[in-house]
Specification:
The chain has about 140 residues and is mostly helical. The chain has one domain. The chain contains four helices and no strands. α1 packs across α3 and α2 packs antiparallel against α3. It starts with a helix and ends with a helix.
């Protein structure tokens, strides 16, 4: 398998996971529990705001006129923002699980399977990269 094909497979699998996460959001949107919908809406708004901050940090990282310390600061900022977003996604998962356990379990099973596939593909990618390095030596 070529490096390019492996990276495309990783991208496809990760995209599948993103679609599954959107199904978790759909479970919450379809809930008849107004309090649950309100909490989900607040969390989603926090995710959107954090995504915007990540985007701004990435744009700033692309500006070359910043000093040498600036990228390190931005990497830390982006890392912290991603931690915040991951926490918010887990809050959504908890809400969905409380609203519809069976549907959420099914979705989590799919996410887990995709995560295992990504790990397998990443191992393949690393092996291919090591083979190429050995050929270059």
């Amino acid at each position: 398998m070529s490096l390019y094909k492996t990276t495309l497979d990783i991208e496809r699998t990760r995209s599948n996971n993103n679609m599954i996460w959107m199904n978790i959001v759909r479970v919450l949107a379809e809930s008849e529990n107004e309090e649950c919908q309100k909490k989900a809406s607040q969390i989603i708004n926090e995710i959107i705001i954090t995504d915007d901050k990540i985007g701004n940090a990435l744009k700033a990282l692309l500006l070359e006129e910043q000093g040498p310390v600036f990228p390190a600061v931005l990497f830390t900022l982006i890392e912290n923002l991603r931690v915040t977003n991951n926490t918010n996604w887990m809050h959504l998962l908890r809400l969905a699980y409380n609203e519809s356990r069976e549907v959420t379990k099914t979705l989590l099973s799919s996410i887990h399977a995709n995560d295992q596939e990504v790990s397998k593909l990443m191992n393949n990618l690393l092996a291919q990269m090591q083979e190429e390095e050995e050929l270059d030596d």
